[in-house]
Amino acid sequence: MANNVIAVYPGTFDPVHRGHEDIVRRATGLFERVIIAVAAGHHKKNALFTLAERLDMVRESAKPYSQVTVESYSGLLRDFVVARGAKAVVRGLRTVTDFDYEIQLAGMNRSLMPDVETLFMMPGDTYQFVSSSYVREIALLGGEVDNFVSPTVLARLMAKVQSLPKE
Predict the structure, then answer these.
(1) Are 133 and 12 in contact (CB under 8 A)?
(2) Which of 114, 161, 157 is nearest to 13 (CA)?
(3) pLDDT tens track for 84-130
(4) Is 44 a catalytic residue?
(5) Looking at 18, 33, 132, 136, which residue is catalytic?
(6) Is 43 tagged catalytic?
(7) Where do the domains of the chain lie, and which CATH numbers do they carry?
(8) What is the pLDDT of residue 44?
(9) The model's pTM
(10) Which residues of the chain have pLDDT under 50?
(11) Cα separation of 32 and 25, whole Å?
């Protein structure tokens, strides 16, 4: 474990899923402190869950890890990372498409934060193709997502889906 190194794991987490949880679990073995930074989602106008709901779900999923805190942020990730004294940004990768986007983002972040490293982590094989977008879509279409999210998130997801107007 890197002594005194703070890492930030940013995302929208709409909703948080087992792949996210896997990355958090493994990041806690690498860093003294991990801050899960839940984006307000200014770039994702169609979030299923509110920021408050996403924060609650992420906090619930992070309970097993005493060195993990959960905060929201808006604006530049750089401002959030620098204000907390973090030296690493953790990003999840699943596919080549993710890599293409993430490598560009990491390059921009390096320009904005030359003293901060980006660490790419792949979720375990079981969750390598799980994404929040797929989880939402499958749930909205009546499919089963039990294997992809925790029981707490599943309950919230099903309640949210049932509360939506029927088309």
Answers:
(1) no
(2) 157
(3) 999 999 999 987 777 888 889 889 999 999 999 999 999 999 998 99
(4) yes
(5) 132
(6) no
(7) 2-163 (3.40.50.620)
(8) 59
(9) 0.93
(10) none
(11) 12
